[in-house]
């Protein structure tokens, strides 16, 4: 284009001296035209706002007049400087933006390497970074020293994979489905964020609820909680029949209440317990909770925990689709954390499947296993309490010291069984 223009005007000489007046007039006209142009385009982007446009017009003219005092060149150069500094600003902004982007990408990469290393699988938006070590709890989340001290006292040097991911998820205020094999440290994964967030002991009401499928598990979780909370004056309570009968229940001062759904829902039904202040609700061993057909009771607990900012979480060794689907109806934007593969057993546990056609065949296979490789102590799980009693009678005659627990036993009998001394 430039080339074409120079070709067209080649040889033409324009006498600027001769046409000085016209040039001056032409310049003046152009300036006014530009102004009109500029203003009309402003009007175009603000259709229907006449009043605003008029006052803006006035302001623009006023501005132009005042700037004109400084001289046309000053005005032009200051305009240019403004543009340059705007450009610099944009460059700087873009630079910062790309630096920020790079930083985020590096962080995401580090997170995914750590997750791969520990077989952690997550799904959900903007999932918090996994913990590199327990030290992250104080450096990133301001954890008080008593908790880290308790971990050390209990001999916990490194977080387990489920703890690495579920703790930051809960601390970041997200709801969570966590699925990790038996014995992988799930209790600490949901108790520590509670202790960290609740900070100081309750002055009134219940602040966190943990639901467990059986009384024994509820009692075990209570003991774990107390161990982890040592050094802080939290009120950690197991909901027992005695506590339900007590007159204090309506004004229970409790930071963490642990119960079975059945017991808790009956306390709610009797209008003895107010759960409207609960900030955390955990369904532990959720697969068992839903399996045991406790949906109605769980539902009544979920309803009673009516605090709109409550954080709910599900911890389980397996996460059947039916349970997840059901739970999703009450969870908000939940993160799913799975250690290893969903619904698989721990890789550190040897497993063997033995086919036995009949009950007698099972007993035979069991006896054979005892002779070949099963060294007591051994735990045997069966389907019903009747079957447990039967197997107990059968094994009693095999020169094995055998015991049995089932729901027909009293709490004291079960306790004596587990803690005889
Ligand atoms: N970071 C850790 N390092 C070492 N041991 C730990 C750690 N966290 C928990 N433990 C211990 O591991 C054992 C199993 O923990 P826990 O009972 O919480 O597992 P779980 O996943 O809840 O098992 P289950 O599915 O049977 O309930 C406990 O004795 C606990 O004290």
Automatic annotation (TrEMBL):
<dbReference type="GO" id="GO:0005829">
    <property type="term" value="C:cytosol"/>
</dbReference>
<dbReference type="GO" id="GO:0016787">
    <property type="term" value="F:hydrolase activity"/>
</dbReference>
<dbReference type="InterPro" id="IPR027417">
    <property type="entry name" value="P-loop_NTPase"/>
</dbReference>
<protein>
    <recommendedName>
        <fullName>RNA helicase</fullName>
        <ecNumber>3.6.4.13</ecNumber>
    </recommendedName>
</protein>
<dbReference type="GO" id="GO:0030490">
    <property type="term" value="P:maturation of SSU-rRNA"/>
</dbReference>
<keyword id="KW-0694">RNA-binding</keyword>
<dbReference type="Pfam" id="PF00270">
    <property type="entry name" value="DEAD"/>
</dbReference>
<keyword id="KW-0067">ATP-binding</keyword>
<dbReference type="GO" id="GO:0003723">
    <property type="term" value="F:RNA binding"/>
</dbReference>
<dbReference type="InterPro" id="IPR050079">
    <property type="entry name" value="DEAD_box_RNA_helicase"/>
</dbReference>
<dbReference type="InterPro" id="IPR044764">
    <property type="entry name" value="DDX52/Rok1_DEADc"/>
</dbReference>
<keyword id="KW-0347">Helicase</keyword>
<keyword id="KW-0547">Nucleotide-binding</keyword>
<dbReference type="InterPro" id="IPR014001">
    <property type="entry name" value="Helicase_ATP-bd"/>
</dbReference>
<feature type="domain" description="Helicase ATP-binding">
    <location>
        <begin position="167"/>
        <end position="337"/>
    </location>
</feature>
<dbReference type="GO" id="GO:0003724">
    <property type="term" value="F:RNA helicase activity"/>
</dbReference>
<keyword id="KW-0378">Hydrolase</keyword>
<dbReference type="GO" id="GO:0005524">
    <property type="term" value="F:ATP binding"/>
</dbReference>
<comment type="similarity">
    <text>Belongs to the DEAD box helicase family. DDX52/ROK1 subfamily.</text>
</comment>
<dbReference type="InterPro" id="IPR011545">
    <property type="entry name" value="DEAD/DEAH_box_helicase_dom"/>
</dbReference>
């Amino acid at each position: 284009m430039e080339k074409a223009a120079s070709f067209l005007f080649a040889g033409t000489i324009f006498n600027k001296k001769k046409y000085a007046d016209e040039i001056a007039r032409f310049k003046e006209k152009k300036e006014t035209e530009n102004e009109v142009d500029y203003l009309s385009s402003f009007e175009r982007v603000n259709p229907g706002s006449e009043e605003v446009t008029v006052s803006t017009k006035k302001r623009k003219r006023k501005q132009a007049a005042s700037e004109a005092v400084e001289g046309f060149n000053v005005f032009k150069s200051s305009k240019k400087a403004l543009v340059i500094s705007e450009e610099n600003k944009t460059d700087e902004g873009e630079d910062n933006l790309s630096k920020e982007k790079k930083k985020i990408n590096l962080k995401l990469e580090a997170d995914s390497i750590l997750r791969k290393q520990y077989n952690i699988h997550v799904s959900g938006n903007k999932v918090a970074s996994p913990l590199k070590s327990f030290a992250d709890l104080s450096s990133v989340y301001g954890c008080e020293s008593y908790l880290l001290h308790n971990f050390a006292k209990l001999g916990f040097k490194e977080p387990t994979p489920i703890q690495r991911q579920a703790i930051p998820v809960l601390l970041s205020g997200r709801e969570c489905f966590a699925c990790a094999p038996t014995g992988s440290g799930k209790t600490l994964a949901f108790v520590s964020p509670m202790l960290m967030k609740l900070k100081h002991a309750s002055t009134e009401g219940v602040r966190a609820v943990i639901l467990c499928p059986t009384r024994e598990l509820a009692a075990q979780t209570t003991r774990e909680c107390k161990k982890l909370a040592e050094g802080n004056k939290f009120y950690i309570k197991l909901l027992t029949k005695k506590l339900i009968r007590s007159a204090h229940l309506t004004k229970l001062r409790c930071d963490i209440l642990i119960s079975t759904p059945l017991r808790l829902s009956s306390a709610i039904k009797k209008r003895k317990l107010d759960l409207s202040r609960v900030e955390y609700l955990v369904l532990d061993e959720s697969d068992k909770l839903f399996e045991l057909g406790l949906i109605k009771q769980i539902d009544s607990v979920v309803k009673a925990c009516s605090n709109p900012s409550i954080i709910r979480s599900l911890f389980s060794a397996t996460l059947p689709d039916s349970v997840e689907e059901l739970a999703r109806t009450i969870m908000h934007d939940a993160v799913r954390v799975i250690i290893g593969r969903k619904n698989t057993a721990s890789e550190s546990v040897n497993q063997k499947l033995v086919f036995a056609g009949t009950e007698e065949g099972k007993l035979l296979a069991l006896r054979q296993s005892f002779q070949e490789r099963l060294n007591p102590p051994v735990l045997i799980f069966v389907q019903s309490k009747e079957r447990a009693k039967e197997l107990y009678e059968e094994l009693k005659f095999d020169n094995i010291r055998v015991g049995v627990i089932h729901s027909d036993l009293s709490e004291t009998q079960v306790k004596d069984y587990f803690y005889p001394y």
